[in-house]
Design a protein that fits this description.
This protein is an alpha/beta fold. It has two helices and three strands. It is globular, with a radius of gyration of 13 Å.
């Protein structure tokens, strides 16, 4: 199983999220464990100087994975055109 974390805004089910998830599933046969990282998950983080509401969420991933294994971080505005398992 491939763990994928996607930094996104607070609004769920946006077109960008749906397109990214579709592009991930379309190009792999592997099972994907997709987690959306949203601002409400980190209420104590000061985001006032960040470029986007989710710029630094990638730094939470090791702890979210209990410091084990590997994971992929993506911003919500990305697309996947190849097998993410590669």
């Amino acid at each position: 199983m491939i763990k994928i974390f996607i930094g996104t805004s607070e609004h769920q089910d946006t077109a960008a999220e749906k397109v990214l998830v579709y592009s991930l599933h379309k190009n792999t046969n592997e099972k994907l464990d997709i987690t959306f990282l949203r601002p409400s998950m980190f209420p104590d983080w000061d985001r006032t100087t960040w470029g986007t509401p989710f710029s630094y969420f990638r730094y939470a991933i090791p702890e979210l994975c209990k410091w084990k294994g590997r994971a992929i971080y993506m911003d919500v505005d990305q697309l996947n055109f190849k097998n993410i398992a590669d």
